Each structure stands twice: as structure tokens, then as C-alpha cells.
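Second attempt. The first submission of GrpE protein homolog had a stray character pasted in from the spreadsheet, which I only caught after the job came back as garbage. Lesson logged: always re-copy from the clean sequence file. Corrected sequence (225 aa) follows.
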Amino acid sequence: MAARLLWAVRRRMQPLLASSAASDGRGWLHPFSTATQRTAGEDCNSEDPPDELGPSLAERALKLKAVKLEKEVQDLTVRYQRAVADGENIRRRTQRCVEDAKIFGIQSFCKDLVEVADILEKTTECISEETEPGDQKLILEKIFRGLSLLEAKLKSVFAKHGLEKMTPIGDKYDPHEHELICHVPAGVGVQPGTVALVRQDGYKLHGRTIRLAQVEVAVESQRRL
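This time the job returned cleanly.
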């Protein structure tokens, strides 16, 4: 900016250059001499603000920003570590719950089965203690009553836990529920392709087949396969 000012002043002072030659003989200082330019430059430089002020403010701003970013990084690191620790704790608790469910998932069912075992044990003790060796009829009656009570209790336990016995006689053969043992000739009132006889009962747990029923299926042919 000082150079531009000097250039403008020099351009305006060009008409006076001729008259300034006489003034040089008397020892006057030429307005565009080296000393004059140096003095003008020094005066202009003295009015400009120091160049060191700008970089100093920029460095301070960068340092403050760096400190702020470092604090944010530390905060995010702590949050991440806490999240990882919480996730690991949740995973461990979930795994423990799954293992407990595998081990103790049938706890309620087993508790009900213990009552069935109690009935069977009491029936056996009653028969062996209160019955005379020669009284076979009384022994059979007690055995029958005990077994009937045992069967009723088992059915109650099964129904409580969603265990259902299938009754497929007369139903159409279904390989997802029935295990074919053999074919039998279709009799009166028995449709071919339906279950005519059950060898072993099948069971469902909450609607899902857990044991196939072993069945004999009726066919039109008179020949057993």
C-alpha cells in the first residue's frame, strides 16, 4: 500500500521535476531521493499494525479448538467403553438365563410328576402292609384303585402342561402324525386310507407332535402288506 501511495505522489509531482533541478544546487533534499523514500517507508511501516498479532490469534484459536476436540474424544471414548461393558454384561446375563432355562425349564412339570410318584408309592405301601397274603381279590381292588388314581393324576398333569394324547382312529393317515406299521383290510364303516388301529399312542405338546402314533391303516385290498 505504501508503494502505491509513493507511485501516485510521484505521478502528481512530475510537472515539478524541472523546477526541482535548481533546488538541488542549493542543497535541498530531492523529494524522491533514497533518504526521502526510506523515511516515507519507515513512516508507513510505523503506522501498519504488527504482522505477529494475526498468527498469534490464529494459533490460540487452533489450540482452543484442539483442546475442545480432545475433550470430546475422551468423552466419546468413555461412553464407548461403558457401552461395550454394558453389552458384555447383558450378553452374560442372557447366556446365564438361557442355560438356566435349559436346566430348569421342566421344573414345574417335574414337580407335578413327583405327585404322581407319591401316589404310586403310597399305593404300593398300602397293598404290602394292609393286605393278607391270601386275599388276592382285595389286593387287585387296591391295585386297580391306585392305578385309576394314578392315571387321572397323569392326565391332569399332561393337560396342565399342554401335553395331549392323540386319538387318530378314523382319521386320515398323516405321515406327520402317524407312523405306519402295516395295512389292514377295510372293514364295515372303515374308509380306506384311514387309521383302523393304534398300536402305540402319539402325543402333542402345545400342538406340536413330539411322538408319532404307531397305526395300522385300512386299505381296500384284502391282503396284508
